[in-house]
């Protein structure tokens, strides 16, 4: 399973809305890293779908980049956890910083296109 962050346009259709992802290029991460990124950004993830204004997302990314070294284990990474036949992925040092840089670019693309950021 994975989570993809991408610029999207929300179109109102009567009482409902439809979200159209604008580009196939987004940031795709595994569920665990995606949930960790959303937590780091102060956004809720219920295992399904979410969206926020691009400007809000950019502000959250910038704050997370500024606080990354004091707020996470990114400097040392995370070892894989193994239990019986189940393995939870590890994370190499610097992975969150790299992903935040990519999310920064996605946020700028969304702002240029007057779009929101969606994740699913």
Oligomeric state of shown chains: single chain
Note the total helix count: 3
Question: Any idea what the shape is?
Answer: globular
How many extended strands? 7
Runs in which pLDDT lies below 50 for 5 or more consecutive residues are: none
Radius of gyration: 15 Å
Protein traits:
two-stranded antiparallel ribbon; 7 strands; 120 residues; 30% strand; single chain; five-stranded antiparallel beta sheet; globular; alpha+beta
Please give a structural write-up.
This protein has 120 residues and is of the alpha+beta class. The chain has one domain (2-70, 98-119). Helix content is 38%, strand content 30%. The strands form two sheets. Strands 1, 2, 3, 4 and 7 form a five-stranded antiparallel β-sheet that branches. A two-stranded antiparallel ribbon has the order 5-6. The longest helix is centred in the middle third of the chain and has 18 residues, at 54-71. The mean pLDDT is 81.
Question: How would you briefly describe this protein structure?
Answer:
The chain has one domain (about 1-70, about 100-120). The chain is of the alpha+beta class.
Give the SSE map.
Blueprint lengths: L1 E12 L2 E6 L5 E4 H10 L9 E4 H18 L9 E3 L2 E3 L6 H18 L3 E4 L1
Antiparallel strand pairs: 1-2, 1-3, 1-7, 4-7, 5-6
Helix pairs in contact: 2-3
């Amino acid at each position: 399973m994975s989570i993809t962050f991408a610029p999207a346009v929300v179109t109102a259709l009567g009482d409902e809305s439809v979200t159209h992802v604008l580009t196939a290029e987004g940031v795709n991460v595994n569920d665990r890293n995606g949930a960790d990124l959303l937590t780091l950004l102060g956004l809720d993830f219920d295992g399904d779908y979410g969206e926020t204004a691009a400007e809000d997302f950019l502000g959250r990314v910038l704050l997370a980049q500024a606080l990354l070294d004091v707020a996470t284990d990114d400097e040392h990474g995370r070892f894989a956890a193994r239990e019986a036949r189940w393995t939870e992925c590890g994370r190499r040092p610097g992975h969150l910083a790299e992903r935040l840089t990519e999310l920064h670019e996605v946020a700028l693309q969304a702002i240029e296109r007057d779009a929101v950021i969606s994740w699913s």
